[in-house]
Amino acid sequence: MERDRSPALGRPRERLVSASAIVVVAFFGALVVFPLFKIFQVGFADLGVDRLAEIVGRRSLWRVVRFTVWQAFLSTLLALLIGLPLAHVLSRFDVPFARLWRGVVSIPFVLPTVVVAGAIRGVADDVGIIERLPLTSILWAHVFFNLAVVVRIVGTMMASLDQSQLGAARTLGLSPMAAWRQITLRQLGPAIVSSALIVFLFCFTSYGVILVLGGPSVATIETEIRRYAIFRNELDVASVLALIQLVFVVGLSVASAKLRRVYEGRSASANSKLAVDTPRRKVGVTAAALVTAAVLGWPIVRVLVQSVRVGDAFGFGNFEALTEPNRLLPITAVEALGRSAVIGLAAALIAAIIGGLASFVIVRGGRIGSIFELAVLIPLGLSAVTIGFGYLLAFASFDLRRSPILVPLAHATIGIPFVLAGVVPVWRSIGTRQREAAATLGASTRRVFMEIEWPRVARALITGASFAFAVSLGEFGATSFLARGNTSFTAPLAIFRLLGQPGSVPRGQAMALCVVLGVVVAAASAIGDFVSTSLGSSSSASTS
Amino acid sequence: MTHYRRSITSVVMTLGLLAASCGSDGATVATSDGPDAAGAVVLMTHDSFAVSDGLIEQFTADTGIEVELVSGGDAGELVSRAVLTAGQPEADVLFGIDNTFLQRGLNADIFIAYESAGLASVDDSLVLDAEHRVTPIDVGDVCVNYWRDGLETAPATLDDLALPEFAGTFVTESPESSSPGFAFLLATIARYGEDGWEDYWEQLVAGDVEISAGWEEAYYGSFVAGGGDRQIVTSYATSPVAEVVFADPPVDTPPTGVLTDSCFRQIEFAGILAGTERPQAAKQLIDFMLSDAFQSDIPLNMFVAPASSTAVLPDVFVEHQTVIAEPLTLDPATIEANRLDWTERWNEIVLQR
């Protein structure tokens, strides 16, 4: 960490680091550590050694743990296998409708699990193969949801790869494979590991998909925590499971920390896109389009078809009904969508601020920085029931449970890892040499920051914030737990409510609302893309 | 410089400890005698709670009491969070605890007693707690439903469901993740007794009964209504009414029928949560929930029957509802005492086959 102590970037920056660290710690302390502490306090209160030994000695418990890890591992592997080539195509080539394409990849992220699971089940029935293979449909659903994570996080990094080194290496006689391994992979490694970790944690704690597609005989740590905490009223067993989950999440983050150490390249702000002109490139792009269509498009089309089906005919009646009062909903579906948007914007803003500060500490804060890097991922790997119950206890005394701000705050804790995954690798890759050179030439710390770091960090922040917005827009578990009256009645809650009633009308409206939600997130992602690329091009124009 | 790093670390640690230690429970718990604290009375309900526009506003206009509605998940989640926060409740009144979870709430002392005058119009069979810690608000029956066009002959009894004739046609929900699923398990226990229900389930398993995680997956995934291939599903006595009310294009008769022999009665209660700072307003809210205005509003919003006999039922409800004359029931204390054993046995018989 010697590089952080160069005299040119002296004390003011260190004070900034510690101020940022305090803000971030206060945020996570209040919203994650404290609630966890409270729920464990209750869960472990009456847990004797004998009882603990009996719980930990259950073979069924470890079978559940093994299956949880196994399905999350397979899901992550598949998401990478499909996501990396897709990210490559979307970020490196000048493909038609790139923005739209990237938008489509983001849609699954906000679709409610009930809907996706239903769609995937339908697709499985279409194909007629997966009926008796719950694992296959679970994996498909997980890939469906998480492809966006890989494509966007790794894609951001790919778009600003340092191509000059690759060229130099090739000139010096390195084989394409060796050059790719030594240059490209080393540059991309941290982003790949970050996205893989996020996908793994999501699948590790996935609830709705497992329940719906796995059926009642498939159990994961997450579904078991809920079963023990809520149905069986055995909070001690639930807490032991939650602790196993926590240990796993922390262990995994620590283990991956080394892999995420970044290679410092002098990458350009944004690379120009390659034309799709050779036959090989055309085949590659077509293949990527086909895979996107099959894995993502098929279930999405099923939802689309259901949304325009009115009785035996087709039409837009379900969409029109979204603006009208509905006796199943406290407010109209469109109003719920408005609440979602407001909460999403608030969550994205909070995530960008806290995530930005955290990234700053991580990049410039030495050891504290590396601890932060691990700690912020923990909320992703926590069970919704554990953290939800923790909130109930933690905020009981000074009754914050009534506050509508709790929902965007909770959403932000899930969104922050996405901001970090985008920002940290980019920020780290801005070479010390670049900053020092500028400082030696007489630029002030502030000027170095504003002209060299900020333009590129801002791009990544915007991408991250648009991701946090998507996370918030689709979030159901925490929202349903923390929702307070109509102010936090979001679109996913409305969809859930509509699906909870027999009759074809509410179902069609639920599907229509899913479609609108999907369109909103695709648009948000496209806008995020647009702003971030135009920032990038203007900054590269001004600095070069 | 190392000193600097250490000081950051200690600041961070101190903050963490501060955050962890300021959770000492210093809230004041009001008794039910004093005047109410300021602010709206908070009503926590299950997810399926719904009322017509203007009804709550009318209560506010009549009494000057503002009501804040909060949704607390399904019945099980609702009770779990009330038990967890006992003494420091999230709300003043809880609505949606049913007879299958009632005893857990009573055991944890989460309610304070209140005998509403409105109980005069409520049948005694619905009042399950003699101390009136909870007040019955509505009644629903979990019943097996069937798709009328799907079967040559409809099943008439629970026994029929186990016949080879109906093999491969029945989907029900897991009792551990679904409220109707648990009610159906209780129905079989109430009908066949401690000694017979396991055999019955073994016959259902032999007839390839399908188990889904929740009601949505069963009704919309596997049942014919959502495009599935199962003609028989565990749902509610009022589901056919909903099929008519929410049909497009409109229909005159529901496409589904109810197996009246299979019904387990679910009674939903409201109770004032111990630790409330607004006991007087809470009592008025309970009275309101038993008033004819609220009770008559229940059927078409929540698709259950009102508890009060003086409520007015909407025509469409009267026309299409199936009145269950002799529903199956079990005592809440028996349910709570055996819940874990019964579901464990069920798991062994049905899931680990």
Distance between the termini of chain B: 65 Å
Overall spatial form of chain A: globular
Rg for CA atoms of chain B = 23 Å
Mean pLDDT rating of chain B = 87
* Residue share in helix of chain B: 25-40%
Oligomer: heterodimer
- Number of strand segments of chain B: 10
The residue fraction in helices of chain A comes out at: over 70%
Largest interface: A-B, 74 and 73 residues
SS-derived structural category of chain A: mainly alpha
CA gyration radius of chain A, whole angstroms: 24 Å
The total of helices of chain B stands at: 12
Structural class call of chain B reads alpha/beta
Low-confidence stretches of chain B: 1-32
Number of DSSP helical runs of chain A: 22
Q: What composes the largest sheet of chain B? A: 10 strands, mixed
The poorly predicted ranges of chain A are 1-9, 539-544
- Euclidean distance between termini CA atoms of chain A: 29 Å
Strand content of chain A: under 5%
Shape verdict of chain B: globular
Strand content of chain B: 15-25%
What does this structure look like?
The complex is a heterodimer of chains A (544) and B (353). Chain A is mostly helical and 544 residues long. Chain A contains 22 helices and two strands. In chain A, strands 1-2 form a two-stranded antiparallel sheet. In chain A, helix 3 crosses helix 12. The model of chain A is unreliable at 1-9 and 539-544 (pLDDT under 50). Helices cover 40% and strands 18% of the residues of chain B. Chain B has helices spanning 2-21, 55-63, 75-84, 102-107, 158-161, 179-206, 215-222, 239-245, 279-289, 292-302, 315-320, 332-351, and strands at 41-45, 67-71, 93-98, 111-112, 135-147, 170-173, 210-212, 232-236, 256-273, 305-306. The longest helix of chain B has 28 residues, at 179-206. Mean pLDDT of chain B is 87; it is low at 1-32. The interface between A and B is large, with 74 and 73 residues.
